Amino acid sequence: MKQYFLYLLILISFNSFSQSSFTSESFDVSRHDLETNIYEKDSTANALILYEYGNSYIDKKDFDLKTEIKRKVKILNRKGFDQATITIHLYNDKNTKQEVKDIKATTFNLLNGKVESTRLKSNNIFTEKIDKNNTVVKFTLPAIKEGSVFTYSYRISSPFVFKYHGWHFQGSIPTLYSEYSTSIPGNYEYHIKLIGYLKLFKEDRVLKRDCLTVSNGGAADCTNTTYIMKDIPAFIEEDYMTSKYNYLSRIEYEMKTFQGFDNTIKHYTKTWKSVDNELKTEPTIGRQLNKNIKPEDLLPSEIVSEASTIKKAKDIYQYVQNNYAWNGEDKIFNEVSIKDLLEDKSGNSASINILLHNLLEESSYDVKPVLVSTRSNGFPTKIYPVITDFNYILVQITINNKKYLLDATDKYLNFGQIPFKCLNHYGRLLDFKNGSEWIDIIAPEVSSIQYKLDLRINENDMLSGQIFTRQSGYYALDKKKDFYSDPTNYLENLQNRLPTIEILEHEVISSGIVDERFEEKIDIKFSEESIVADKIYFNPFTFKFFDENPFKLQERSYPIDFGYKKAYVYSLSLDIGDKYDIVEVPDGITVKLPNNVGEFAFANQTNGKILKLYFKISFKEPKYDPAYYQYLKKFMSQIVNTQKNSLIVLQKK
């Protein structure tokens, strides 16, 4: 009997293993690949890359860069069907182009216990020209069903060896096994960047002698490298992040130097010193920055004659803000013309900010342009100059030893405030005399939201009173845009946010769009729905800072990037008068993040007829390491629960 149960246990264990395993280190499709229809490490996955392999090398015959790619993909459910459409991007210039060859694709299904395969036909491969430099080749695997496994392979031939083929280990679905092999001749020198937070499982390098030869007897040795990564989670985008391309685990290459077999050397990667020299005379940056604009020919006389240094700078800034409209484009290396901007009163962000720079410089201010990459554009590399990494220009001004970053594209921005999209950690300050340098791009102040409620029970046993709100920093920027662009719509949206409250009167008490804060006073009355029998029930959080927890992932491998420090304050003072007693108030709570980088506190106090509640949240850092994710997730969950589930109950005497 014991032997029987031992045999049964082994059999069950074997079956369980066989039904949850995939063949992940082979391009061949196994029966296990078809029979297994769950991925235990990620129950939310709709599809799964079981195996992928890439191999890039310089061809001995034509010296083009060849890249061979193979992938095996499992479809777990219908939502994964879109993974069966494959898109291959190809680049061309006037004379040469990339080509894709030897496309082969097959779908495998398990039908009535038998494995059936369906091959992709050549007439189902389509080519689409995107623009003059970009083409895509597309195909969709045939006979896709839930449980299908498909394989595909192809080879890309590229004459653009200065841009070695990069490799993405991580994508929108999980990957069990990813291997990339490269063979780089010694006379091709590349900058190699491993990006992302995931670690390689294996990295091997082998030197191969005389891998590349030419007819005159020249030869080069190759460094053959193999990179392997296993059990790669899907990259899922979530709130509070910059571009996903900052964090996707991948390898990128940028050619540094090429040495021909005749000993000629061509440098592709430049130094910042050489780039600075080129930018001085570059038509859309250097030449535009050198355009002489006399302030007295453009600015009102009262601005030109202003004696206060700081006020004059702010007046010039507001003049550009209010008189030149941003056309929605963020180009910095073409179509940038100060002349056109002055004539049309409209231009891209670079032309507007260069005009601001020139007016300030001609007014004897210490100003410098700053190249930045916006949050959605990704981080610019610091290893070597890549000017195409940048897509925006700001202006730095120094007044009384204090530095301000300026952007005049938005009339709602305050002096010293830049668009949220530009809060991408660092930028390159251009100084054509002393040399450029990296500077930090940081919001100088905490952005906050404050609500103060003064409520009372009126003669009709109804809750009524006033709400005072105050927003600062980027919260004030958003509020100013919402209100001053359409006050009627703003009030309608505000009333819709407060379904159990009637707005009796609304007044903005801050001083217009130039005010650094947005403040308002709202007279309100609660609806009768809060009264049941002789009791009044209401949630004290008329306004909720967070309706739900924005952090939902099981784990997150990239930073939580708010962009700026945040603070939230909510206070309530309730005068219950002589008719009611307090039956229930929410409990107080204090929670802190590790290392005191954030906290929230909720407290209550009763003093005679007055009940006071105080609620405060602070995020003391603009950016948190992924190690804080689980703490932040729990932290935010407690905040949401406190706001949703708090209840005040008053009993009529």
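Above is the first protein from milestone M3; the second protein from the same milestone is given next.
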Amino acid sequence: MTAGLRQPRRLGLLLLALLVGCTDSVTALRVVVARKTAQIDELVVYGWVDGALRVAGRRFTLPSDDLQGDLVLLFPDSDAGKPASLTIEGHTLGALAAWVSVDATLRRGETVEVTARLGWDPDGGVDTGPDASCLGSRCQGDDLVGCADAGLVTTSCPLGCVEQPVARCRRLVPSNGVAFTLTSPEDLVLPAGAAVFINTSTGKISGTIAAPAMFQVPQAGAPTITVFVFRSINIGPTAIVKATGANALALLSEGPIVLDGLLDGSASGIAGGPGGGRGADLQAGATGPGAGLDGKYDSGGGFAGGGGGGSHAAAGGAGGAGGTVSGGVAKPFSLVETLEPLLGGSGGGRGGRGGTAINAGRGGGGGGAVQIVSGTSISIGGGINVGGEGGKVNNNILCGGGGAGSGGSILLEAPAVSLHTATLAANGGGGAGGSATGGAVAGASGDLSAGVAKGGAGTPATGGDGGAGGAKKGPKGKNGIGALEAGGGGGGGLGAVRINTRTGSAEPSGAVISAQVSWGKVKTK
């Protein structure tokens, strides 16, 4: 392709080649370049054919008197039928003063003519035709430069700018199919001390906020994700968002997300957090890919084993033996580091129960699965808790301690993530103590800290203690202790945190992360 600036009217001849090589083809694009002021003393030209950059910043010096001329681009016949676009900058003393984009479709053997007018105000009353305003945008480093009625507008692109097929900001592509397919005019703003309750099963939010856009994303072999879409999210200090339900939770925002309060996706009783597995009772076993198994029992001999702890990013602990019967084992499970699919924690197994008991030492539920996505930035000064529930006891009869639920998953995705004073916790719960003649204690639940959830004490002398839950310093759940009659439940394993940013790293200064943590780069388009 060759090009020149030549004089059909008043501009002096400036015939210059833009690319090496020439062609005899008459397939051409003629751009009538008109400048409103002689103060524009230089043109800088960028050109694309079918999205491919052909001309990159070639410069033409202009005389100070003539205000109009032709820019002629020649193309090979093979480009016929393809879209061509040209961005022309007008510079004054080396500074950008005006610019315009023009578009055309090339035709074989013909010269297509368009007009580019530099320096006109589209609302100034001058009838300059469809090319009077900027008809497109261009990238300037990481910025997107466009034109509005008031002049040039520069937009900072958090993920950088891309020229093809048209100039635009790169967009974030969230994991697990949580796509930016819906927009919302609503902001989630919670002042200090406020509370909101989210049910991922029903898609309902209780509290004094407007109903957001919502959709659901099924996952193969994993819980469905319920996605709530806001324009921006700002959760103030001491404010609480509590999430429950069978589905995993995703909060999606094009704008910034600020979390200075608490997002609580922890388990409650045998119920898992959002998308987490349930703990076992006499009606049903524990659920989740790493669910703990039930303790054995021998009603004739008066022995009961503890339930196994749930596994997630790390293994849960096995239940302690009771006399001659074994405790439930912790089911092995290998979690995908990228959190694709998005999985909650697994529930703990129940303790073996003797005699004609109608209850048992129930297992704790697994921590929830939470995905937070912003197209702009995420800043966390508060906390996110997806801890597993501690195992339960049955002090009315001989019974092994319940196994604890594991910690869940937290996935953060944004161009930039700041964790200045954040606490992200996916701790496993502690197993319950074995009950032989009463007096056993339930295990502690995984809380918002890096501390270990303690296992509960068993009946003195005859009941074993529950194992501690997995935490930052020790990711595996501890085994329950064996005893003469009733073993303690196993502790739940540690959960996971994944942080995806533009650079592949976050800013964890001052943050406490009690989880198996990994960093990666966001996907873009």
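Note on the second protein: The chain has two domains: 2-134, 205-525.
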